[in-house]
Structure formats: structure tokens, C-alpha cells
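sry for the spam today, last one i promise. C-alpha cells for design, 729 residues
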């Protein structure tokens, strides 16, 4: 072999030197290794396991590996795997021999080139290059065939997957053609003869003119179109289709129109659903935001803008950190991210801050948006619960206050049969001795017993039936059977519509107070009885002395009688005050003018020298205790008896304001002493040094207080006093 320089190819081809002649093989391997275009390949365990682009083989090796070489060439067809056969010059013709040599047809079926030895290196290179070019051409052709097969296969699969069919209209022949997918979209048999007219009749009547006009412009003017229209198939089902047309030209002439038809019903349904979802999200009352997987905000709805104060342009591109109030811990956010990145939904309360810095509380739900196992976004929903939380906190504080209240509190449900209790606090349990689980679900009448006053029970029942508040003192019984006096107040609880939805009861153990009142009453009766009896004796003796003498002794006896009368009057006032303190005050509607006329009429008969006038021009009604007349009588009497003149004058004037009634009692007598004035308006402090009398003024002050009124004292001009009483209407 001789060496001839050649250009170096871009890639080295793999050559399998399959020579039985050892000498020629060494020369060939050396030439291959030295040549920049080739690389020698060693034979592996078999021909089939060896990768090579061309095989150089001599007669002996060919005979040895004939079956394997032929099998590999057949398997790789139609790609060419070239074999170059080297034969000595004397064996250029291969004939069948008695020894079983190769026949010509066997060689020509397997061998692509035969060369005789010796051969120039340049010729060998030329021969190999030619064979490799043939191989490259076969590879290229095979790739094109495979590409065409792929395209056909992809087209068929596209029809199946994307519901896309193709159609063609030959303008000159005025004939049409379409694929089976187009037939399927129309719900027509596959062998249906295609035509534009046939297709047009299946389109929705409102969309048909649009498509016909577009097709006409495509055929006559070469204008393409891309339309989404409705089609009613042969089965009567409505579909949405996307039909496209692309006019085709040959030598400048419009020859045909080719297009596609795709069933997009599912897509249109999804778009409609998405539009509905978008409208729902846009109009939702909850704040909604969407972020990418890194937490960058991509969308916010109007409710988000309203709740946070951030506009969409201000929020998009940022992270929800813009809402961070600083009140949530790092652990909170670590757990949040760990939850949603693992594909789970996060739902917890969070304290955020609006753009203006205002703090607010929301229930926040964040869910991953997945595609298979991959998370590609997060959607967050915020429901503001600030007011609810504030109400809950306020209710919790109130509940705690009720639970810890020093009086018994119970709540009943009138919508249930027997109006049972649905709540009692700890003090109720302490007062009654009944555990909570024994009283809930029962009417509180189980506290009544043998000595419970039936009239008081009736009063309670009538108030509840009338849906009115009631306040009584009733004898009740604890679980252990012991009696106790219960100061009971019951009030209806109404909803916004004014309907009674509950009754709340307040219980206070006033047993000790009742016992003290009873003791005071006994003491009062004994004291007044003894005082009255003894004073009657003193008065009788004084009158006897007075009637039997005219001396100074008689005058002194007269003073004894006078003071005795005063003491008896004082004892009567003490009795009245004791009763007021002991008994529960009862208020009622009072017609002021009539009451004043009755009082002044009686007093004028007792004090004929006095002038008592009433200035009340119309009917005036107010609410006061049943003892209110006693207070007026006491004030007018004081004004008369303390006036030094021979003809005392007293004027009672009634006036009204928006919500109050005012009674002014004016006199012309001396100024009321300061100590008595303080008693009247309730400014006297009881100390060991206080020895004031004026039980009548104490009585007035007590009656006005129980009537929820106010009393003031001013100087009259030029002399006298003005005592004013103000009551609510």
C-alpha cells in the first residue's frame, strides 16, 4: 500500500478490519490508525455486537463470518452497512468449487465493493469514501422516511387528541375533501362526500352567514380566516368549532383553499367556567390573591384592594409581606410555608396591617394550585373577622364578668317548654347549693317550697306572661332544704325585632337583711308601743295639772303636753321611715295636679290661716312611689308651721321639660337652717357629732330617692325658700 494525502473529514468513520491474512491486517490497521478520516474497530464477541460504519473483509474472513455479516446487513436495511471485499488479483472471479467456495450471487447479495490486491492507499480511501457516502445517503433517506412517518402519525394523533380535522376545497374542480375527524365533528359517516354546502347547513343559524361570507372571500379574494362558531351536528348536539382557512396559490393563481376544523367545545366550556369563576372572584366579598411558588403576588381581586388599601398595581409583584403586622412569629410563617409547599391547605387566623397602618384580623386559607404532583401557584383567601374577634373578646369578658358576678345570674329560654334555664353562674350554684348539671334544663320553680308566698309567685308569673320585668323578695329553698330570702329580679331580653328571646334572672341572698328588718320591725313596734303608752300617761298627768292650776306650773304642764304631741308625731314619722326602708318601693303613674289639689285641700282645713295655691294648668303625669304625696304634704306643712307670720303663704308650681316634671314649692317664711337643708338634699354625713332632728325631712329625702327624683333648695325673694323636686316622666 502507498500513502496519498487526503483532506481530513469532520468526523472519523469506524472501520472494521476483518482480514484472515495477518500481514494484510497489520498493514490495514496501521493505515486506518494513521488516517485522519477513520478509526479501527476491534471485533467484539460477535459481528452483531460490534458497532462499525464499514467492514473491510478478505475471502477467508468472509467465508468464516458470512452468516453473521448477512444477518446484520439484513437487520439494518434499508440503511446500508457496506462491506468491501479484498481479493488477490488471481481470485478476482469467485466461482463455486467442489470445496464449497462462495458463488457469485452470494457475494453480490452481501458485498458492496470488490477490490483486488495490491491496492493503493488513495484508491482504498476513495473506495471507502464512496461506500460511506452511500451509507450516509441511506441514513438520510431513512431519517426522512421516519420523519414522514412521524408527521403522519402525529397528524393522526393530533386529530384524536386535539379533535382537529383537515379539509380542502379545489376551486377549479369545485370539489371538497375532508378527513375522518371532520366527518366525526359533523356526526356524519366517514364516506360522506364532502362539500362546503353540506358543511354550512350544520352551522348555527346565527353563525352560518358569518362563515359563508368568510369562505366566499377566501375563495374569491384569497383572504384567510380563523373563526370560532357554533355547529349543530347531525345528531342535534351543539358544538363549538374553530375553523381556519388558508388560500393556496400556484404560479400566482388561487387554486385551492385548505383549512382545519377543531372541536373546541370543551375549551369553550372551560372558558365559560373560567369566566364565571373570574366574575365570582371579582365580585367575592372575601379578599383573594394568587402568588407564584416564591410567594410573589400575581393577582388580587377588588375585595383585596378594599380590605388592605393596596391597589392591584401596588400589590402585584410584591409578596404578602406588605401586610405583615409584626404580630405573628417566625415559627408561624415557617409552619405556613412548610404546609403549603407539601401540598396541604393552610387555614389559620392572622393579624395583618392595612396600607394605612390599621391592624385587622382575618381567617386566612392558602391552598396550593397543582398540576399533577407539581405546584405552580398558591391561592389565598382572607375573611376579615376583626369585628367578630372583638365581639368574641367582649363576650368573653362579659361572660367572665357574669361567671364571677357576686350575685346569682340565670338565663332561661322561653322558646322551650317550661321556659327552662340554659345558664347559671357560679354564685347561683353557691346560693342554692344545686350543681349546675341538676338545674340546667329545668324551670327555676324547684326553688319554691312550703312557705313560699303564692301571691309573690303569681306576681312573677304574670310579669313573665306580660313580658315585663319584675322585682320581688321571695322565700326559696336550697338543695339541703334550708330556707333563704331571695331578692329576685327578672327581665326579658329582646332581639332587634323586639321579640323576647330570653329571660335573665338575678338572685341575691338577702336572708340576713330580712332578719335584720324583722328585728327592726319588732323593735320598732315595741318602742312605739311603749313610747305611746308612756307618753299617753305623761300627757294625761300634764293635762290634769294644767286643768287644775293657773299658775306657772299650769303653763309648764301645757308645754309638756305640746312636746308630748311632737314626740308622738316624731315616732309616727320614724314608723313611716322604717316601713319605707324595710319594704320594697312600688312605683306607679301619678297625675300630679290632682294629687297636689287633694293635699292642699286637706292642709287648708288644718291650717285655715295659711294661703296655699297650686299653679298647674294641664294634666301632668309622672312616675313615683306610692308615698310621693306624703313627701309633698311634709314639705308644705313645714313651710306653713315654720312661718312666723300670721298668714303664711305657700305656692306649688308644676312645669314640664322634654323628659322631666318639676314641682316648685315656694314659701315666705324664714330660711331653712343649713343642717336641715342638707338633710333634705341628702348632703348630711352621719357622724357621732350629728344630732339633728328633722325626721320629716329624712322622710322626704327617702321618698324622692325611691321615686328616682332629685331635690334642691334655693332662697326665695325677698324672703323664704324654694324647694324644687324633679322627676322623670
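last one done:
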Amino acid at each position: 500500500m502507498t500513502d496519498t494525502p487526503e483532506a481530513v473529514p469532520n468526523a472519523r468513520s469506524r472501520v472494521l478490519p476483518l482480514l484472515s491474512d495477518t500481514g494484510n491486517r497489520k498493514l490495514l490497521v496501521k493505515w486506518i490508525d494513521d488516517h485522519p478520516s477513520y478509526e479501527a474497530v476491534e471485533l467484539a464477541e460477535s459481528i452483531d455486537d460490534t458497532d462499525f460504519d464499514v467492514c473491510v473483509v478478505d475471502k477467508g474472513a468472509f467465508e468464516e463470518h458470512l452468516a453473521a455479516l448477512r444477518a446484520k446487513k439484513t437487520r439494518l436495511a434499508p440503511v446500508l452497512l457496506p462491506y468491501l471485499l479484498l481479493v488477490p488479483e488471481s481470485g478476482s472471479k469467485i466461482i463455486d468449487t467442489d470445496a464449497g467456495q462462495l458463488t457469485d450471487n452470494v457475494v453480490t447479495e452481501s458485498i458492496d465493493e470488490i477490490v483486488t490486491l495490491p491496492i493503493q492507499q488513495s484508491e482504498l480511501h476513495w473506495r471507502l469514501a464512496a461506500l460511506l457516502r452511500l451509507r450516509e445517503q441511506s441514513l438520510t433517506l431513512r431519517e426522512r422516511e421516519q420523519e414522514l412517518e412521524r408527521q403522519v402519525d402525529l397528524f393522526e394523533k393530533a386529530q384524536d387528541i386535539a379533535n382537529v380535522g383537515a379539509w380542502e376545497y379545489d376551486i377549479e374542480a369545485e370539489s371538497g375533501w375532508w378527513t375522518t375527524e371532520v366527518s366525526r365533528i359533523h356526526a356524519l359517516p366517514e364516506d360522506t362526500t364532502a362539500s362546503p354546502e353540506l358543511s354550512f347547513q350544520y352551522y348555527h343559524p346565527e353563525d352560518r352567514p358569518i362563515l359563508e361570507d368568510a369562505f366566499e372571500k377566501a375563495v374569491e379574494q384569497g383572504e384567510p380566516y380563523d373563526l370560532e362558531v357554533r355547529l349543530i351536528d347531525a345528531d342535534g348536539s351543539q358544538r363549538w368549532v374553530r375553523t381556519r382557512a388558508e388560500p393556496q396559490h400556484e404560479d400566482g393563481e388561487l387554486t385551492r383553499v385548505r383549512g382545519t376544523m377543531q372541536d373546541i367545545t370543551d375549551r369553550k366550556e372551560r372558558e365559560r367556567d373560567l369566566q364565571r369563576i373570574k366574575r365570582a372572584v371579582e365580585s367575592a366579598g372575601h379578599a383573594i390573591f394568587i402568588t407564584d411558588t416564591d410567594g410573589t403576588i400575581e393577582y388580587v381581586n377588588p375585595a383585596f384592594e378594599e380590605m388592605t388599601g393596596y391597589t392591584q398595581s401596588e400589590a402585584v409583584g410584591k409578596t404578602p409581606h406588605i401586610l405583615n403586622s409584626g404580630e405573628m412569629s417566625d415559627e408561624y410563617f415557617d409552619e405556613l410555608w412548610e404546609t403549603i409547599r407539601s401540598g396541604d391547605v393552610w387555614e389559620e387566623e392572622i393579624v395583618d396591617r392595612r396600607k394605612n397602618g390599621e391592624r385587622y384580623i382575618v381567617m386566612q386559607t392558602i391552598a396550593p394550585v397543582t398540576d399533577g404532583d407539581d405546584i405552580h401557584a398558591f391561592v389565598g383567601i382572607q375573611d376579615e373577622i376583626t369585628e367578630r374577634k372583638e365581639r368574641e373578646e367582649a363576650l368573653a369578658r362579659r361572660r367572665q364578668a357574669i361567671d364571677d358576678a357576686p350575685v346569682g345570674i340565670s338565663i332561661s329560654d322561653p322558646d322551650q317548654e317550661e321556659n327552662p334555664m340554659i345558664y347559671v353562674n357560679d354564685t347561683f350554684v353557691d346560693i342554692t347549693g344545686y350543681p349546675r348539671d341538676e338545674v340546667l334544663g329545668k324551670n327555676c320553680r324547684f326553688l319554691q317550697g312550703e312557705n313560699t308566698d303564692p301571691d309573690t309567685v303569681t306576681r312573677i308569673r304574670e310579669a313573665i306572661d306580660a313580658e315585663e320585668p319584675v322585682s320581688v323578695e321571695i322565700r326559696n329553698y336550697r338543695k339541703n332544704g334550708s330556707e333563704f330570702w331571695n331578692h329576685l329580679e327578672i327581665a326579658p331580653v329582646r332581639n332587634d325585632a323586639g321579640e323576647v328571646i330570653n329571660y335573665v334572672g338575678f338572685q341575691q341572698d338577702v336572708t340576713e337583711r330580712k332578719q335584720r328588718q324583722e328585728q327592726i320591725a319588732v323593735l320598732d313596734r315595741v318602742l312605739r308601743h311603749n313610747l305611746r303608752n308612756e307618753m299617753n300617761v305623761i300627757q294625761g298627768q300634764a293635762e290634769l295639772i294644767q286643768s287644775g292650776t293657773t299658775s306657772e306650773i299650769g303653763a309648764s304642764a301645757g308645754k309638756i303636753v305640746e312636746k308630748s304631741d311632737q314626740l308622738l308625731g316624731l315616732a309616727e314619722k320614724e314608723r313611716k321611715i322604717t316601713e319605707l326602708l324595710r319594704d320594697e318601693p312600688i312605683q306607679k303613674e301619678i297625675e300630679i295636679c290632682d294629687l297636689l289639689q287633694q293635699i292642699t285641700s286637706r292642709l287648708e282645713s288644718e291650717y285655715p290661716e295659711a294661703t296655699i295655691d297650686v299653679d298647674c294648668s294641664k294634666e301632668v303625669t309622672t312616675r313615683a312611689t306610692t308615698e310621693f304625696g306624703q313627701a309633698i304634704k311634709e314639705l308644705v306643712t313645714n313651710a306653713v308651721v315654720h312661718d312666723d307670720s300670721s298668714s303664711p303663704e305657700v305656692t306649688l308650681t308644676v312645669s314640664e321639660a322634654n323628659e322631666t316634671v318639676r314641682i316648685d314649692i315656694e314659701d315666705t317664711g324664714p330660711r331653712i337652717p343649713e343642717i336641715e337643708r342638707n338633710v333634705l338634699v341628702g348632703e348630711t354625713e352621719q357622724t357621732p357629732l350629728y344630732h339633728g332632728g328633722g325626721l320629716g325631712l329624712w322622710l322626704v329625702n327617702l321618698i324622692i330617692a325611691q321615686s328616682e327624683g332629685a331635690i334642691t333648695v334655693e332662697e326665695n325673694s325677698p324672703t323664704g325658700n324654694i324647694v324644687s323636686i324633679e322627676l322623670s316622666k
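The longest strand covers residues 238-250. ok im logging off now
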